[in-house]
Structure formats: structure tokens, C-alpha cells
Amino acid sequence: MERLDAFMARANAAYYAGRDPFGAGGDFTTAPEITQAFGECLGLWAAVTWTLMGSPDPVILAEAGPGRGTLMADALRAARAMVPDFARAARLHLVETSPLLREAQRARLPEATWHEDAASLPDGPLILLANEFLDALPIRQFVRRDGAWAERWVAGGAFAERPASGVALPGTGAEGEIREVNEPALRLAATLGARLAARGGAALFLDYGPAESAPGDSLQAIRGREAADPLAEPGTADLTAHVDFAALARTARAAGAAAHGPVPQGVFLSALGLHSRAAALAASDPGRGARHIEAATRLTAPEAMGRLFKALVLCHPTLPTPPGFETA
Ligand code: SAH
After folding, report:
1. In this structure, are residues 43 and 253 in contact, taking their beta carbons and an 8 Å threshold?
2. 121 lies in a domain?
3. Which of 23-27, 30-34, 57-61, 146-150 has the lowest mean pLDDT?
4. 107 located within any domain
5. What is the mean pLDDT of residues 20-49?
6. What average pLDDT does the chain have?
7. Backbone angles phi, psi at 297, to 5 degrees
8. How far is ligand 1, taken at its centre, from the CA of residue 63, in Å?
9. Residue from 10, 34, 98 whose mutation best tests the ligand 1 pocket (most atoms within 8 A of CB)
10. Do the record's keywords include Transferase (predicted)?
């Protein structure tokens, strides 16, 4: 018998250690693998945020869960072309636990330094990017039973329940209601919040989840682009859960940082100029022009990835509002 978060941590560590899940033929695809314009826009976001910070040199440019390194390679190429002083000041640090994906990242970003955990990033002003990182971190789940909370454990491929302890949950709940808590994400928000308040900078998270904290079971497994049983064959499917952006913002604020958002990904990327970039790519690549436009639409359309995915930024309390969060 294993608590759900321990099960999910073990399953995902095995999953990411054993394969490159992205792209054609993989289990799923992510925004940076859909179009280079995504990483390029985030690179320019980082460069503008750096100027809002007062252009510190050096600055730590970090990414959590960089996958194949595609986002950061695109971001740095755009930054070198448009804001070369930022690219020169940036010291690249990647937080990645999978040895296999570290190798893929090293091929594209040989200048990086790797970390197991964001807590070991060097001190100083920081810009951190993370796309579909928080959703892979292990969650705990609680179920309301007879006026009290029970916790979900995993035994023999099925859920079991035990009395809950050591966690702050609402005092009430409807019978059978499920609540999720992502403790590593909340710890990261607290650590980053304190660090950003003390040393300056911003951390941008793109992920999927509701705008407000909400009850419900969001644990899902994807294998070969299809939904699978999350508890069966651990390590063979990608396990994710919705991100509770409101809880992360509250936690970072309590640690002294400011938080903007979440804003829908479609609103955020459109404000950063994703569609103009896609049009420019289409014009310079007429044979595949439609592909560039379709990719931008997929990332921004509400019925595709534009609404369920959201952007949240945690930052120093006096930093002017970073690009894309003007409406938040
Ligand atoms: N950002 C990439 C990859 C998303 S998949 C993209 O958008 O394509 C999740 C990434 O987080 C993978 O690189 C995975 O190996 C990494 N990861 C998962 N759990 C982690 C953890 N606890 N610490 C560090 N990296 C982790």
C-alpha cells in the first residue's frame, strides 16, 4: 500500500527516466514541440522582464522540467537576435530529474548547469520558466466520508482509503467530494516567493487547470495519446493533475512575492505577439505556411489549448506588471 503521491512520484520518475514522450510517435505533445514561436515568444518575455528588473548582469535564467530543451533553445535564439545584452547576461540553469532528458537537453543547451531541485539554483536575480512542469508533480487526494476527510492510497492497482492527517483541508465538504493537494508545487511556490521577494526576478508557469481552486478528481494518465488507467502499469503512462493556480499564488504572496494571473494561455500568448510571429514564419516558409498558422491557433483557441492552459507569474513585489499580464 502506497500513498497516492508516493505512487505518482515513483510512476513518473520511471516514466520520464525510460523514454522521450514528446512529439510524433510519442505519448503526448507540448506547446514548444508544436511550434518554435512558443519558445521564441517566451524568450522575448524573459528579455522584457529582465529590462523591467533593471537589467541585472549576471541573471540566472532557469527552466524547470525542460523536456527536450526545445523551449529554451528557441527562447535563447530569439533573445540573442532581439536583446543580445540579456542573452549575454543570462546564466543557464535547468531543473531536471530524468537522466535521459538531461542528455537531450545537453545536446541543445551544452552551456547549462543541471539541478535535481529548484532549491539548489544559485543565489541572485532569477527568471524561471516552466511549461507543463507542475502538472507532473505528485498530488495527494482526499475524499469526504461521513463528515471527515479520508486520504487515497494505492493498493494492487486500486484506490484504498485511510483517515487523513497532517494536511489543511476545508472544514466541510459534500459526501464523496474529492480535494487535491500538490505539496511539491506549494513548496516550490513558497521557496520561489521568498527568494523572488529577497533577490528579485520572476517565475512564469504555464500549465493547465482552473482559474479558481475547485474540488474534483483531475488525476489522468496518457499513453500513446489516449487516456489510460492511472493506477495500472506504473511507469508506462504520463500521470498529471490539474494545477491549482490560486493556491500557488496565495502561497507565494504569503512568502512576500507578488503574483499576476492566472490568465488564459490564449490571452497571454496573443498579447506576446504569437500570431504575428506565426505569420512571419509562414511568410518565410511558404511550403508549410498553413502549419505555422494552425499551430498558433491550436495554442490560443479557447476550444483547443487557449483556455484550459493558463499563465501565472510570481515576482518581486515592486516589479512592473510583466508582459501578457496587463489584464490580470
Ligand atoms: N517543459 C517540457 C516538458 C514537460 S514534461 C515541454 O513543455 O515540452 C515534464 C518535464 O518535467 C520533463 O522534462 C520531466 O522529466 C520533468 N520532471 C518531472 N518531474 C520532475 C521533478 N520532480 N523534478 C524535476 N523535473 C521533473
Report:
1. no
2. yes
3. 23-27
4. yes
5. 92
6. 96
7. -65, -40
8. 10
9. 98
10. yes
